[in-house]
């Protein structure tokens, strides 16, 4: 089996990385949200490609909800990730005003625990983690 076939194979030898049905339960989402060290974490399932191609979507803000300008998530220092059934974790949005962002490299994870570890390391190792310089809101 080629690498391309293995990536696209829904019957991965290690099995699916998460069960979309399990994440309909609030307890499963809260457990993963609790493993990521950030003031605001939201975990959701996207089934736009069908249930067999479900994607885990993570929304993370480095600022508490009370500090968002006008109560709007996009006015905070935030990032968004997705994890497909092919076990690839990718960041597709990063917004850190007035700072040069540190890129998150696309990576493959073996478990949801490893996902939390990689995201926590990324947040911890970024130079803008403790920066509070937000642009004025008009």
How is this structure best described in words?
The structure is a single chain. By secondary structure, the chain is an alpha+beta fold. The protein has one domain. Helix content is 22%, strand content 22%. The chain is built from 3 helices and 5 strands, in the order ααβββββα. It has helices at residues 3-8, 26-35, 112-125, and strands at residues 40-46, 55-61, 78-83, 88-95, 107-108. It has a 5-stranded antiparallel sheet, with helices on one face. A hairpin with a 4-residue loop joins β3 and β4. The longest helix has 14 residues, at 112-125. The termini are far apart.
Q: What tags apply to this protein structure?
A:
alpha+beta, 22% strand, 5-stranded antiparallel sheet, single chain, 138 residues, globular, disordered C terminus, 3 helices, disordered N terminus
Biggest β-sheet strands, sense, barrel: 5 strands, antiparallel
What's the overall geometry?
Answer: globular
Series of H and E elements: HHEEEEEH
**Helical stretch tally:** 3
Low-confidence stretches: 1-10, 134-138
Question: Rg, please?
Answer: 16 Å
Strand order of the biggest β-sheet = 1-2-3-4-5
Tell me roughly what share of residues is in helical segments. 10-25%
Distance between the termini: 56 Å
């Amino acid at each position: 089996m080629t690498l391309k076939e293995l990536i696209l194979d829904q019957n991965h030898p290690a099995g699916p990385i998460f069960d979309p049905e399990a994440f309909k339960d609030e307890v499963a989402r809260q457990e993963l949200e609790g493993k990521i060290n950030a003031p605001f974490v939201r975990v959701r399932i996207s089934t736009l490609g069908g249930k067999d191609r479900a994607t885990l979507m993570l929304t993370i803000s480095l600022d508490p909800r009370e500090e968002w300008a006008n109560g709007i998530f996009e006015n905070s220092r935030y990032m968004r990730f997705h994890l497909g059934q092919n076990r690839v974790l990718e960041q597709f949005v990063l917004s850190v005003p007035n700072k040069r962002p540190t890129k998150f490299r696309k990576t493959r994870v073996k478990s949801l625990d490893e996902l939390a570890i990689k995201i926590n390391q990324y947040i911890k190792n970024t130079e803008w983690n403790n920066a509070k310089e937000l642009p004025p809101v008009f």
